[in-house]
Amino acid sequence: MATILIDGRACPARTDENLLQACLEAGADLPYFCWHPDLGSVGACRQCAIKQFSGPDDKTGRIVMACMTQVTDGAILSIDEPQAREFRAGVVEWLMTNHPHDCPVCPEGGECHLQDMTVMTGHDSRRYRFTKRTHRNQDLGPFINHEMNRCIGCYRCVRFYRDYAGGEDLAAFAAHNDLYFGRHEDGALESAFSGNLVEVCPTGVFTDKPFSAVYSRKWDMRGAPSVCAHCAVGCNTIVNARQGTVRRVINRYHEAVNRYFLCDRGRYGHGFTSAPTRLRAPILRQDGIPVPISMATALERFAAMAKDGPIVGIGSTRASLESNFALRCLTGPDRFSTGLTQLEHDLTMQVPALLRATPARNPSLHDMESADAVLVLGEDVCVTAPRLSLALRQTLRRAAFPAADAAKVPHWMDAAVRMLGADAPSPLMVLTPAATDLDPIAATIHRAAPDNLARLGFAIAHRVDNSAPDAPDLSETEIQLADALATALRTAHRPLIVAGLQYANAALIHAAANIATALHATGADAALSLVVPDCNSMGMALTGGIPLDAVRAMARAGHIGTLVVVENDLTRRLDAATLDELLAAVPHLVVIDHIATRLAERADLLLPAASFAESGGTLVNTEGRAQRFLPALTPTMPIQESWRWTQQLTQAATHADAPEWTNLDQIVATIAQEIPALSRIIDAAPDAEYRLDGRRIRSEPARISGRTAVRADISVHDRPLPQSPDTPLSPSMEGAYSPDMPGALMPFYHAPGWNSVQSLNRFQQEIGGPMRGGDAGTRLLDDGIPPETPEWHHDIPTPFTTAPDDLLLLPEPRLFGTEELSALSPPIAARVTPATLRLSTLPAGLQDGGMVSLTLAGEHLTLPVRHDPALPPGIALCPPHLAARAFTTPVRVQLHGDDTP
Amino acid sequence: MTAPMPVIIGVTLAVLLGLATFLTWFERRLLGLWQDRYGPNRVGPGGILQAVADGIKILFKQDWIPPFADRGVFVLAPAIGMMTVLLSFGVVPVTAFWSIAGNLNVGLLFVLAMMGMGVYGVVLAGWASNSKYALLGGMRAAAQMISYEVFMGLSVLGVVMQTGSFTMRDIVLAQSGLWFIVPQVLGCVVFTLAGVAETHRLPFDLPEGENELGAGFHTEYSGMKFGMFFLAEYAGVVLISALLVTLYLGGWQGPLLPPALWFGLKTGALVCLFILLRAALPRPRYDQLMALGWKILLPLSLLNIAATGAILLLHAPG
Amino acid sequence: MFGILRTLWLTFLHMGHRRVTVGYPEHKPPLPPRYRGRIILSRDPDGMERCVACNLCAVACPVDCISLQKAEQDGRWYPDYFRINFSRCIFCGMCEEACPTYAIQLIPDFEMSEYLRPNLVYEKEDLLISGTGKYPDYSFFRVAGVKIPGKDKGEAEREAPPVDIHTLLP
Ligand code: SF4
Ligand code: SF4
Ligand code: SF4
Ligand code: SF4
Ligand code: FES
Hints:
A: alpha/beta, Ubiquitin-like (UB roll), Dimethylsulfoxide Reductase, domain 2, seven-stranded mixed beta sheet, C: alpha+beta, 18% helix, elongated, binds iron/sulfur cluster, binds FE2/S2 (inorganic) cluster
C-alpha cells in the first residue's frame, strides 16, 4: 500500500495500479475515456490529465496522463489545479468539435459517458464555427446500431472487440480526424460478444438495436438483479423493465464470474419474455379444443385428475431450484424426474461428485483467466459457455505478463503488454472433434472423435502421473501429442483442464478429472472446470431425481395417473415415437411453462408460469455457484411462478401437509433444510427482509418520470405499486440506494455525476475488485473432501472405429438457435442460420451444399451438407433441435444420399 | 310590551345565526372593497346567496372524523364553541324590553364565564384531533384566551364600579347621560383588543395561523363541524360588538330612531370595524401578542381601575 | 400605535379606489404570448412532428405528469404515445424549458376545465397542433447529425460531406 496526495488529501493506493485508478478509488471525479478497468490504458484520449508535483517545493508541476502513470508512494497530485482543468476542458472541447447535435435522438443520452465527462469538465458552449466531419453508418446486424458521427476516437471498441474478445471484423479505418470504426462492409458483427460494444463505447456510436425499438431512458426503467438463463455460466445481469415489459438486459458486474462483459445470447436472449407464444391464461384441453379457464377451475380440474392415480413430476434444467423443488414436494422424491434422458441424467448427476472428489480447484471464470496452461478437452466452450471462452482467451494476455514484468511494464499498460507478449507462447490447447473459435489462438489443436479425445486425455494423465492408467493402443501421433501436452501442463504453475457434457461422453470428463488429479499431485495449482449444458443443470444434479427413462417405465407399467411437467419441452428430449408412447400411457398431462412449447400443445391442463423476469429464484452455475435472480416485473395474474403453481396443485391435490410458502425465502429455507447439498443457497442473496438504512433498496432511479401520467389513460387515481413478497427491492423509486448495496441486490448503477455504466467504479472495493457490499451468490461445491490417495478413473474407451456408411452424429450446438429460450428472441432468431450436416468426406457424387437425407430421432430429414475436411473421419455434425426436434447423443446415422423420397 | 320569552329566544337565535351566516359573505365583500377587489359577487344579487351556497356546500361535504382522533371529544368541541357564544347573548339587552335575561344580576360575570368556557371548545378540538398542528393551535388558543380573559375582566370593572351593578340593563341605563366610552376610554380600548383576541379573529388569530399551523386547532375538521367553528367565530364577532355597545356605547339609547335600530346600527358599525382590522393589520408574532397583553393591557386596565376607583371615591357622597 | 391607526385609515380609504379585478368571463384579460397555459405539441416548418421523444420534458416535469414512448421511422424519432395528465400539471413551464426541439410549448389558453378528471388526460391527438407555435423557423433535424429521408449524412447545417474512409490523405 502506498499513500498519495490528491489535492492535499492523503489517499491509500496500490503501487500496481495507475493514478487514474487511484483517483477514482479515492472517490475523486476525474474524467477519462479510453481507459477501461479490464482493457487497461492506452493513453489515447488525453482526457485524464492531472498535475503531478515532484515534491512539496515543486509549485509548477507537470501535466501527466493519470491513466499512463504508475502510482508511486508519496506522489503529489492535483486534479483541481487550473492548468490541468484547462487542459481537460480543452480536450473535451476539441473532442466535441465534430460531435453531432444528437443527444435528444441518441439512445445513449442519459447514460452517456461523454455527456457526463463534458459536464464534469465544464464545457458548455460551442466555439467552433466550422463544418463538422460526417460519416456514413453501417448496418451491423440485428444487435448493434451504428452512428459513427458520434465517435470521439477513444479506440475502446476495437480494443475490446479485437484485443480482448478476439473478433476480426471490426477495425479502425482512415486516419486523423476521419477515423472510422466499423466493418470492412455492412454485415452482422460476427463476434459472440459484440453486444458489449454498447457498454464499452463511451458514446452513442454503438447502441443496443433491439432496445432501441422499445427504447426508454435509463432513468425511466426499473432494474432488478438477475442471472442469465441461457447457459450454465450464470452471468450476472440487470433486467430493465418499464410499463410491464422487459426492455433490455445489461451486464451486472460480478468480480469472479462475468465481470464487465456478457455474451450476445445473454444480452439479447430475453425477447422470449414478450414473445407471442407467451402463455397468459390456464388452458384446459377439452376434446382437443383448448379453452381458457380461471385459476380456480384449473386447480379444481387438477384435484379431479389427482384422484386418478399417482402424480409423477418432470422438472427441468432450465427451471429454478425452487420450481423443481416445489414439484418434488408435489410428487415426492421418488416420482420426481430430472427431465433428462438416461445418459444425460447419469452424466449430469456425476459432475458435482466429480468436482468434489477431484483435489484440483474448481475455478471461477476470473480465476481461469490467470491459468498458464489450458487444456480444453472435447468441449466447444465458445458455444456451450461463451463467456467462459472469453475468460480462457484472457489467458493469452496473462502469458505476456512475464515479459512485461521483465521489461518493468505495468500490467495495465495494455498496448505495451500486448506488444511484449506478441511472442509469448499461447497457453491454450484445444482438443475437440470440430473447429472452435479458440483455435486461431491455441498453441495446439487436435481433431478427433470424442472417444479418441478421452483416450488422449487418459494418456496425458498417465504421462503426468505414472500411477494413472494409460490408454492402450495409442497411435504414434497420439503418443507424441500426449507427451507434448503432458509436458506443457506439467511445467505450468496454474494448469487448467476444461471439459463438459457437450458430447455426452463420460470418458471425456473422467479423463479430464484424471489429468487434473495428476497435475494436482505434482504440486501444481491445478484446476478442473466442467461445463454443464443448462442454466440450472448443476442445481438439478444437486437436487437429484429419476431419469426420464424411469418415468417411461412407470408409465408403461400404468403407475402414472397425472404427469406434471414443469418448464421442460420434452419434444426436445424424446423423439416423437417415444414421447407418443409415454403420453399415451399417461391419463393426464399437466404442463407448467411460460411459453407455448410443442409439449404444451398436447397438455390436458396448461398453466402459465412466470419467466425469469417476473419471478425470483435460484440457479446453480457450472462452477456450483448458487445465484439468485429477482423479479423485475410483477406477473399479471393468472401468470405466477412455477413453484407457486405447483404449491397450489399440491394443496388442491392433497389438502393436507401441503407446503405453505408465502414467499421465496420460505421455499429457499425449506430447500436448504431438506437437501443438504443445497443448504447454503440461503446465502446466495439477502432475503426479502433485507433493509439498507432501515429501508428497502429502490428498484427505480430517483428521477423516474411520468409517474402520474403513465397509467392515467386507465385511471387518474394513484395506486401504490404492488410489492412482491419475494424481493427486498421496493417496487418504486422510494427506498435506499448507496454504493454499499450488496452485489446481489444491485438494481442499476448510478453515482452523482456518473450516469453511465462507468459509475460501477464507485461500487467496487477497488477497481476490478469485489463489490463494496459483497459479491453475489455462494459457492456450493467447495466442501468436497478429496480422497487421500488419488482415485483414478479407468473407463478408457476403445479407439473410435469408422464404418463405411455409418456415421457418428455429434451435436454442433450453435451460439444462436440451439438454446431453447433465446431462440425465441427476435434478434437472436434473426441470427440463426439454417441447419447443415457437416461431414469430413462427402459421399460419392455429392457436392458441398448438396442435399442429403437421413433419419434422425424418427424424423426423416433432408439437409444441405457442408464439407469440413478438418473433421475426423466417420463423424457428422448437426445442430441439435434445428434440424430434428429431438436430439440425443451419441447417435449413429446412415446417409441416404440425394434421393429425395 | 315585552314579548313572550319563547318568541324572544327564537327570534334572537334566528337573527344571530342568520347574521353569522350573512357575515361570512359580508366580510368577504367588505374585505374586497378595502382591498380593491370584488369578493364573492356571482351567486345571487351582489353575491349575497354565496352564504347560502357555502352553507349548502358545507352541509354536503363529507363529515370526516379522522381515525386517529378522540371521537367523542372531537364531536363535542365545536358544539361547545358554538353554545358558549349563543348563551352569552342571553344577557345582552337589545332594548329595554327585548332581552332574554338582560336583568340577570350577574349578567357581566355570566358573559365572562361563558368566554372562559369557550376556551374549552378550541382546546378540546386541538387535543381531540390528535395531530400536531391542531394541538399546537389548541395550546396557543388556551394561553391566548386565558390571558386575554384576565384583561377583559379587569377592563370592565371600571364600568361595573361606575354602575355599581353587574346587570346589563342597569349598565345601559347608567349611560343615559354620558356613554361610558368617555370616562372608560382605557377600559374600552382594552376590552376591544381583548375581544379580538378572545374571538381569535385576525390580526390575533394565532391559534389558526395558517402559514405555520395549517389551520391550527381545526386542521382536522371538515363538513358542518368545521362550519360550526366558522359560524361561532362570526357569532363571536357580533357578540363582542354587542357587548361593546352595551358596556361603552350606551346600548340601545339614542335620539330619534327606535332603540332596536340604534342597537343594530352601533353593533353593525363595530362589526365593520372588526372587519377593517382584518383588512388592514398583519398578524403579530405570538410573543408580541403575549407581551402586548401582559406588559401593556394589564397595567392599563389596572390603571383604569385605580383611576376609576380614585375618582369615584373623590366624588363619593360624604 | 399611530401607525396602526393610520393603516386602518388608509385601508378604509381604499373603499373609494378602483377595483383591479377583471370580471372574467365577461371581460377576457389580454394574455402575453409567453403566458404559461395549455400545453401543445408543435410541428416543424416542414409539417412534421417536432417532438423527438427524447423524454427530457418528462424528466424535467416536477409532478411527473408527462409520459411517452419513443418510436422510430427512417431515423426520425417520434412519440408513439404522448400523454399529459393535466389534472396534475402545475403549468410551471419546465417541460418547455427542457425541450431541445421547441416541440412542447405552453400557450396563452387556460380554459380547459372539466367535470371529470379523466377528461384532463390529454393524448398526442389532443396535444398536437398543425403549426409551429411560437418558434416558426426551428427544425431540429436540420441541425442534428442523424440521417432522415430527404436529408443525407453531411447535409445538415454546418456539416461537411461524409468522409471517404478508404483514403489516408489528409
Ligand atoms: S453520444 Fe452522448 S453526447 Fe453524443 S449525442 Fe449521444 S448522448 Fe449526446
Ligand atoms: S466507436 Fe465508441 S468506443 Fe470506438 S473509438 Fe469511437 S467512441 Fe470510442
Ligand atoms: S408545465 Fe410543469 S407541471 Fe405541467 S407538464 Fe410541464 S413541467 Fe409538468
Ligand atoms: S422534450 Fe420536447 S422533444 Fe423531448 S420528448 Fe418532450 S416534447 Fe418531445
Ligand atoms: S483515459 Fe487516460 S488518456 Fe484516455
